Amino acid sequence: MTLPTAQDRIAALARPDKWFLGGLDGVLWAPPFPRWLHRPGFWDPVHLLHHELGPCFSAALLDAEGREVALEPDTRTGGHASRWRPGRLTTQWCAHAGSLTATEDRRVLPGGRLQSSWTLTPPANGWLAAFTAQPLRTTTRVRASTTGASWVRTVRDRAGRELPITMELSADPTPAWHRIAVSEGGSSPDWALSPFAEGPHPPPALAPAEPSPDDAIDPEDTVGWIWVAIAVPACGDRPISLRMQLEPGIPATGGPRRAAGKPSRPTRPWRSFFAGFPSFRSGDPHLDRYFDYRIHGLGLNRIDGRWGNIRHPAIAEGPEYFHVPITYSAQCHMMEMRWRAGGEEAWGSILNFLDNQKDDGSLHGRLYGSHLERTDFYHANWGDAVLAVHRMQPDPARLAQCYDGLCRYAGWLNRSRDPEDSGMFTVVNHFETGQEYMSRYMAVDSRADTAGWQPRLQLKGIDVTVYAYLLFRALDEIAGELGREGDRPRWRSLASRTGDAIGGRMWSSEARIFTDLDGRTLERTGVKAAVGFYPMLTDLMDGPRLGAMMDHLEDPATFGTRYPVPSSSVDDPRFSAEGVWRGKRRNCPWNGRVWPMTTSHVIEGLLRCWGRGNGRAGALAADMLMRFVRMMFTGGDPARPNCYEHYNPHTGRACTFRGIDDYQHSWVLDLLARGIAGLDIDDERAQVWPLPHGLRDVAMGPVRTRGHSVSVELTADRAALTVNGRRHEGPRDRPLRVPWP
């Protein structure tokens, strides 16, 4: 099977109904509910990490007298005026009843550059102008020059911390004129509503050295807007680029600062990003499209390592205020980014948190570039994630750094969350699990959903206890690899105690699933939640218990809904497929909605049970993975993939009311690579053993791992594994293992 190039894969994702653009470095233009897509440029807000900045700028075509020439979206061919693909939004505009056409390419380039590039046919007799309005209250140091204008805008984040951002409006070719005005009233990307619409006509030529407009602005006057416009002649044959450069006032730690006005390399960043991942083809349009769409989502939320406290390349959880590293989703990013050559972002997703580890050994729940206030805390499956990355992209130095930091974290976890040495670990509020508004918390405190982030609960959580068990097991394995044999008895003892507690105290024979315990009485709550399947991730499962849990996953009365997996059981008295809690539709409800995060855990658990020889687990994993991926397509249309926070388990409808698409809170790419293509990597060998999914022809590669190039090809009954150009074959229904050369 021929695999497509990176350029082909990007082109195949094209669609008319999307607009999210990112520079693969922490600057993101993804307004959830844009107001101004019908206008050129970037008037809707942009985000620099979690900092919202808007408006940015718009564009207008002006005639020789300085009057605006109305541009309309060009749909004369019966199609759509706009076409999106990763990294670019192209819009066709027309004017003068179609006698003039204009193509605008909008891109967010590395280094904080918003660029609107234009081609006019035929060239117009006038100007193409870029203009903006900035609030007078937060804008200072306005400077004009022969190349455009710049100023400093101060924004405030949710923690109340201010960040100065230098903004520069410029163009190529060099602007012919500019104007700056201070105005009361409102702001709009409509040139006719700007203070420039009244003249003079034509505007004066650009002065070579003009006094700073700051000199004429009353510093006590904070009401109104500073308007800036620059323009270039529209009569030439060459394309015109209008751009805004954004430079945040964050110390550049861990690397050089971005050079103002110059995009960082590579010159084709999206093509380079895609090329680092293997290509994937299965013949199933939903699976094939989603694999590449997932790469887009990871790139969209990529952060480079030059943002103060964020010193390593990593992946943000999502758009808007989620556009920072967050511990709960970092485990997902590590699982997926290990499939990109080098694994830089996979390692960076934990190293950023360890670089900023607290004195007591705990970790910040999220990282801000310029400060570490109001960072919260989330539990995460760090042990599994570190081992997964090291198996595919080994790095002994980084592994040692992770080991040291996770030893300190494990010490904090034991001291603060299991001081009684029960082997089970305490959840103190319903937010820190990443899963709020559930019956599992109400079972131990009827007001668990009212205290916010305050430490109110005493809940021995099955999910965090499984995470702790996997952490202790991982630290034992890593200690052995690093030659720290003296540490291993401690980790084995802790793992044994925690494993005994999971198997002996957290299994509910009545509920036929693992459940939490009341931390005060150490009695099981009996509440059925999707986290009760998490022990499938471990080696603690026996046949009867696994069978009982798989019964639940197939039973529509509990967890066997059309789209897997509801976060709370269907028979839970607080279950709501629509996410209604106490009479209100919540932003982040876990009382029945399907969260891709939890579904990834459950399918991962089944995949591991399949690897240990349970055929039913493999068949169920394959079926659930197919239904899971199909859920994340708007209207089931294979051309319209999405990734929202949560979905209706019966209809598959996403929480579009939130507007938070491309939310990286799961590890779908990893599940497709290991479940559908069947590829598994460790330090001894590459292995192919796909789930029994029934797809006849599957191919994936090249995977660049451990200094080797690996590709997979499946046919109806055969599996092939190519390592460094040498092909190995075997029956598809048995593991095909190839030791490393």
> Roughly what fraction of the amino acids lie in strands?
15-25%
Can you summarize the main beta sheet? 9 strands, antiparallel
Shape: globular
Stretches where pLDDT is under 50 for at least 5 consecutive residues are: 206-211, 254-264
- What's the gyration radius in Å? 27 Å
Tally of helical runs: 14
Average pLDDT, rounded to a whole number, is: 94
Give the % helix.
Answer: 10-25%
Secondary structure class reads alpha+beta
The total beta strand count reads: 35
Distance between the termini: 25 Å
List the helices and strands and how they pair.
Elements: H1 6-12, E1 21-22, E2 27-29, E3 46-48, E4 51-53, E5 58-63, E6 68-69, E7 72-73, E8 82-85, E9 88-95, E10 100-109, E11 113-121, E12 126-135, E13 139-145, E14 148-156, E15 162-172, E16 177-183, E17 225-233, E18 240-248, H2 269-275, E19 279-281, H3 285-300, E20 302-303, E21 314-315, H4 327-337, H5 344-355, H6 382-392, H7 396-417, E22 426-427, H8 439-442, E23 459-460, H9 462-481, H10 488-505, E24 507-508, E25 513-514, E26 517-518, H11 543-554, E27 580-581, E28 584-585, H12 596-611, H13 615-631, H14 668-676, E29 679-681, E30 685-688, E31 698-705, E32 708-714, E33 718-723, E34 726-731, E35 736-739
Antiparallel strand pairs: 1-2, 2-3, 3-4, 5-6, 5-12, 7-9, 8-9, 9-10, 10-11, 11-18, 12-17, 13-14, 14-15, 15-18, 16-17, 19-31, 20-21, 22-23, 23-26, 24-25, 27-28, 29-30, 30-35, 31-32, 32-33, 33-34
Helix pairs in contact: 1-2, 4-5, 4-6, 5-7, 6-7, 6-9, 7-9, 9-10, 12-13, 13-14
